[in-house]
Amino acid sequence: MKELIQKLKETQNLSKEEWISLIENRSVELSDYLFAQAREVRHQYYGKEIYVRGLIEFTNYCKNDCFYCGIRKSNANTTRYRLTKEDILTCCKSGYTLGFRTFVLQGGEDGYFTDSRLCDIVSSIKSSYPDCAITLSVGEKSYESYQALFEAGADRYLLRHETFDSVHYQKLHPSSLTAENRQQCLWHLKEIGYQVGTGFMVGSPYQTSENLADDLLFIKSLNPQMIGIGPFISHHDTPFKDQTSGSLELTLFMLGLLRLMLPKVLLPATTALGTISPNGRELGILAGANVIMPNLSPINIRKNYLLYDNKISTGDEAAESLNSLKRSMADIGYQIVVSRGDSLN
Predict the structure, then answer these.
(1) One-character DSSP codes across 88-134
(2) Ramachandran class of 55: left when φ > 0, alpha when ψ lies in -120 to 50, beta otherwise
(3) pLDDT tens profile 196-223
(4) Per the confidence metrics, is the pTM higher than 0.90?
């Protein structure tokens, strides 16, 4: 297995069978070896710098009914909210003062935020903070909508493909959503010129090693600038409430594989990692990640953007605790930097 990891490090490529073999034969010893290789590659391109993104969760309304998601439209127990343009700009102002140079606007697929409203918000942020990057994470849209938002000033777009396999995809989503359409959106985003981010859930219901291998092959072909992965965590108001959550161990292993497959990619240690383990984010960094996304959303609404149970929204996840985050990164030998942190990929 170590030979396969070495092959991956040298060629950035494995066959589907080799991916499956690595995933199914992992061990503590193999993981430690993988993480050491991943750190070496990461240091080669990004040193020991950790980029921070200011996350603004601006709406928890969503027209979709994904079986795993706490803000699915059928969940009547969610307290819904929308931030105003002024609210969002206030978040950016406080974030800019703290040193953030990337703002991530994330929300459900909310029809209230039309192209014209979103474009106005994006262009206002861009005119106020021209030295900052704007990342959008607002789901599936038409080519024309993506183009308009790009022209308004959006630099990056995050759209997790969730799972490449169409059969598995249908087990996680209603029939109105398809894996094919989601993947087509990613190709459109690349064509327009966005820095693109994708990713998948680790340990989602019905997921197999073959599914994970397919995810890796798809990401290799897409060649994105960012990859966000995190463990599946159940939510008590969804059809998957009794499903077992994904593991920290497998998520970290996948992070290491992704770093070796795409050495220059931006790889976040996600909120979900910090949710399933108190030191999950630090372990993510040690497995090859190099991005952290603290929350800039107003404190009073953070608890309502509950995609899964126990999602951290205060403490180190909150942007106000940036100094604490700096200390925890310094403790493992890394430093948070004030930078747009563009991908080298």
Answers:
(1) HHHHHHHHHHHT--EEEEEE---TTS-HHHHHHHHHHHHHH-TTSEE
(2) beta
(3) 999 999 999 999 999 999 999 999 999 9
(4) yes
